[in-house]
Amino acid sequence: MQVETAAESLDPLSSDCGYDQQYFAPGRVNLIGEHTDYTGGLVLPMAIPFQSTASIATNCNSAYEFTSNHFSTQRRLHLDEEVNAIGDWSDYCVGVLQQLRNRGIEIAPFRLHIGGNVPIGAGLSSSASIEVATIMALLAHAKATMAVEEMAILCRRAENEFVGSPCGIMDQFVILAAHSAHALLLHTSSLRNEHLSLQSKHLSETRIIVVNSMVKHSIAAGDYGVRRREVESGQQILREHFPELADLGQASLGQLETRRASMSPESYRRCRHIISENDRVRGARAAILADDPGLLGDLMTRSHVSQRDDFACSCEEIDFLVDCALRQPGCFGARLTGGGFGGCTVNLVAADHAEAFVAAVTRDYKGAFKIDAASYVCEAAAGAVAQNSSSDCL
Ligand code: GLA
Fold first, then answer.
1. pLDDT tens by residue, 207-248
2. CB 372: neighbour CB atoms within 10 A?
3. For ligand 1, what atom is nearest to the CA of residue 38?
4. In a mutational test of the pocket of ligand 1, which residue from 219, 232, 277 has the highest number of ligand atoms less than 8 Å from its CB?
5. In this prediction, what percent of the chain has a pLDDT beyond 70?
6. What confidence score (pLDDT) does residue 220 get?
7. Whole-angstrom distance, CA of residue 117 vs CA of residue 62
8. Of the ranges 57-61, 105-109, 169-173, which one carries the lowest mean pLDDT score?
9. Residue 279 annotated as catalytic
10. What is the pTM of this model?
11. Does domain 199-378 correspond to CATH entry 3.90.1010.10?
């Protein structure tokens, strides 16, 4: 059985000899609000205590150098070199560098070293975490400052335009702005946000347990983009009929029904997921404020059903983990989290049942699929800005 708290599983940080400063960015788990962040909707994620680290030093060679103790490849760029994505981890760093330079920020030669322990391809935002650690390091190196919103948008752009993943803004924003012991409600159209405490009486007696199916997910791999296009086509049809709608985030199920016949069955179902998911996020906010784990868990489970049946972004292994979770005593709710097509489930479980929950779910999963799932009991962590607040860049 692999069970660990995310905090315990942190690798000891390398001593980083020769680097001037080190910056940290957590991973994230989304509690609810899935696939709503590219249509102006609501999301409710929290940061988790896995981390990417970026260590930076001035380079005496006139080049930008990128190394990592997690990946075997290294990369070196001349200052005036035209850069392209090469399909490895360094693209996340180079994409951020390119965006900063496009903004006119001058960055002297550096050596950047990436480390950390965010599980890769698990839907816990290892890529956004590398981007955020990188932007913190590069801004400090350039002695420049930037508002959180701007940093999040710039990192998202690096991923959309340079890496080529059509993701939304959720991951970068929460990784920068989260508060410890809080979930973050984010309106992705305006970036208005609200920190919701998870420490009220009943919620503090629950645990957020992330179960990693070990089925790899990659949002650059295609299915995410297909879903996004299906959604955008439905959104466009709605806009044509209801010009007052800026995006799907403002649409109602009633409006969608009136246009059902004019869109493909796929677009209709994807949009139904997104509109109903926004309602569930509003409900989850109310449940957290009311300190009601039963209601929060129920909304999480309903979110899973909608992702499975309407958004079609789950898979056999994840559905098994959710069904198995819901049979366990003390489980309030369970769902697929992140981009989908594999990755992790997020489960809300009574604290005194957490250990038995992990034992039962991992045992049954191994029995069914011969895969060792990893489980992480996650406290809500602080975002990169808080973790690096003593640095001179903020
Ligand atoms: C991935 C993307 C996010 C978001 C989720 C689905 O994690 O990076 O922007 O779209 O999928 O909610």
1. 999 999 999 866 556 899 999 999 999 999 999 999 999 999
2. 12
3. 10
4. 219
5. 93
6. 55
7. 30
8. 57-61
9. no
10. 0.94
11. no
